[in-house]
Amino acid sequence: MADLDTEQRGITQTMAARLWNSRWLLAAGVVAVVAVYALAGISAYIVLAALLLLLAAAILPAAGARQSTGSGAAIEATGLQRLSGEYLAAAVADPLIIFDRAATIVHANAAAFAAFGGIAPGMSLSLKFRAPEMQALLDGVLSGDVASDVVDYMEKLPVERAYRVSVSSVGHATDLYVLVFKDQSETRRIDRMRADFIANASHELRTPLASIAGFIETLRGPARNDAAARDQFLQIMQSQTGRMARLIDDLLSLSRLEMKPYLKPGTEVDLRQTVDSVIDSLGPLASENAVAIERRYADGPLHVPGDRDELFQVFENLLENACKYGQSGGRVVVSIAHSDAGPEPGIDVTIRDFGPGIPEEHIPRITERFYRVDVETSRTQKGTGLGLSIVKHILTRHNARLSIKSEVGNGAAFSVHLPAH
Ligand code: ADP
């Protein structure tokens, strides 16, 4: 059906083209017939018949479908012929270089100029790209051994970039070749991050697992009949399984967040109620650590668009850290205030502790996965090193910002700015 439509459209287009091409012939015919009619006073029917004959002559050769396809191709061919190699190269977003049999640059697009400053037509490609893998790539295609090939190539300066470079000869016997550079740097960076993440996560799981395995061995061997040791070891094993469970929960939280591409729009979160329930849920931890929690909330409604469960997780992580790492300060202040600072007005939720604080050099990296200021303290405080990266992830989804201010010896303040709309 679709084919038939396309065919009919093709015929109509070809007929229109033919009529247009023969427009002068038609006009001359009409003028001639009208002139004869005027001079000789011939019947109107004869004039009409003559006009129809002319029209048929213009259209008739297009009647065969096969012929119409041929004409379509001809129109297309003229379209492509109008396209110069230069325009085509400019339309390609990746760096592209056209070169000849002597490996001399014939043309380079703007992306190539931007990526490899200092190239120009007439320059030798082999001098510009001296890396052995690039030389081998050029030799292969220039010797005619292969029509196309691909290599991975690293450009070191001005910044390190990883490219997948493909080369191929252009058309038949043009003696021209084209090089296209696909930037792989971002993909590589993501691959490296993923590999690091898996290595870190495995390491974090392996440590408690090794400890549990060691205690099982001791319990089956030397401590087999030692009731006191058994109790102590079982307690340690239980805390190690707890550590593994927390890590798995945090890993699942992160992966769930990554799988949900964006926030469900249209839900409002009552910050006063959410922060209150976070404080209630962490009451036992706060009293265990002898930390008093003070609330300083602005008056009136404190609502922002967002996901309540996710924001609960944010404040829970921040308040838990304040109670754990800022324990020595003895108190934590949680404030909610309207804020017009920054590009978007909104509401700031700030959790401030009075503990040892965070040295300045750690602050920029503190939200990275598995980054801790002090690994031992984090372990004894049942940390996984993932809390703040979960916070950052959720805030990014909310279009919100996290700012951290700290003075060593004078505590830390984690402030979340949530846009009001
Ligand atoms: P963890 O699970 O180790 O608590 P987080 O991502 O929540 O992981 O925090 C990363 C690190 O940041 C912690 O290990 C700790 O060293 C530091 N940190 C976080 N909050 C505070 C705070 N309020 N005071 C001092 N250090 C903190």
From TrEMBL:
The keyword Membrane applies. It catalyses: ATP + protein L-histidine = ADP + protein N-phospho-L-histidine. GO terms for molecular function: ATP binding; phosphoprotein phosphatase activity; phosphorelay sensor kinase activity. The keyword Isomerase does not apply. GO terms for cellular component: plasma membrane. The chain crosses the membrane at residues 21-39, 45-63. Residues 200-421 form the Histidine kinase domain. Its EC number is 2.7.13.3. This is histidine kinase. The lineage of its organism: Bacteria, Pseudomonadati, Pseudomonadota, Alphaproteobacteria, Hyphomicrobiales.
